[in-house]
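Q: What changes when fe (ii) ion is included in the input?
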Amino acid sequence: MSEVDSVVIDQLGYLGFEVADVAAWEKFATEVLGLVAVDRRDDGGFSLRMDGHRRRFVITPGKADDLSIIGWQVRDEVMLAKVASKLGAAGVEVVESSAERAAERFVGKMIELRDPAGLPLEIFCGPALAETPFASPVVRSGYVADELGLGHLVISSGDFEKTRAFYCDLLGFRLSDRIVADVHGFKADLSFFHTNGRHHSLAFGGPQRKRLHHFLVEARSMDEVGLAFDRALGGGARIMQTLGRHPNDRMFSFYAKTPSGFQFEFGWGGRHVDDATWEPTTYDTISEWGHHPPQFLTPGK
Ligand SMILES: [Fe+2]
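A: The predicted holo structure follows.
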């Protein structure tokens, strides 16, 4: 690929969720995930901070109870123009957002489009940064975010090759690895993709009930995972997978349900990828240990 053709997404910039119970989301996001609510809006919606960015999650009231925006950040307007022209040349319908719409999102410039499964994407440059350093009263050591992006997400997808071509050939994602495994009686075939040093910012492997299976936030210390697990067990969120470690990104994590029904992964210790030396592999298990369904939490079963 020549330099002229090369398109690079820097990071997962923000996620939007349309949620039925805004109050439950605020309680969950601040008390369980430890994010900080900011920019409250007249419609009852609000945003959430996790690092030096002004906001990383946009919570909007609505019936969908699902992912409503995936925001991918590029380095500048030159790269944004390059991305738009590459997508346009491939026949993807791209809308250049108005200045008002970009300002609403607290970004400099933005384009809007849909991925092959119809998921709404916003690709932008120039995110607003926060005026104060980030501090969470709950997750005191903070999150691994900033230049690595907010975390990762596992999205619903259709035709694998179409989706791979869209994200890799048009948006520059690189394959990290693949997991083909039996997971609690279901055959999983997931592919993981990176766009910076984080092992994966994106993964997919077929359709999901909602637009996303889960999103991940990664804390800076292992104890934060245990503390978050305790908060979930204490009634903050329904555990879906117990503590465990994935073989590919080495993430030590657990999974639980958000108030909208899709899941989150709360983790620590994710490995980094160096494109100069990285060789994609295929794993035959989704977890080295743990990540059991919640009935394993009941003694004697
Ligand atoms: Fe994950």
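Observations recorded in class: Residues 152, 154, 214, 216, 265 surround fe (ii) ion (CB under 6 Å).
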